[in-house]
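Justification of resources, computational component.

The compute hours requested in this renewal are based largely on the per-chain cost of generating structure records like the one below. Each record pairs the submitted sequence with a full structure-token output. That output is archived, and it is also reused by downstream analysis tasks.
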Amino acid sequence: MAATRADASSSAVVAGVALAMAAGAAVALAAADVIWLGTSDADGAGAMLLYVIGWTLLVWAALVGVAVVVHLVRSAAAGRRLAPIEIVLLIATAAVVSGVLIVHPLVGSGQGFGGSIG
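The structure output for this chain reads:
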């Protein structure tokens, strides 16, 4: 029984880490947009660094979230009862990752738009 509780708490901690990484990615990408819009093209190094950090955090959040889902599916198949907090954290992580992907699409974000037609 003690191993099951330890397993549940470690899964919740890792799911919480995934959620924190996704939230960090959202903040980094939002800050990059604010900096990018407030500076000239020649002074965008800080924005680019934040973009790289944001996308890196987002990718790792998604990978860790998938790993936790695989672990929970295997644990549930082995007969362990899942803690509700594990499920809530994974749903929140999926929502944040999805929201960031909607707001900051990897392609088609309009960065190539020239601003004037003709």
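The two ends are 71 Å apart (CA to CA). The first helix runs from residue 2 to 38.
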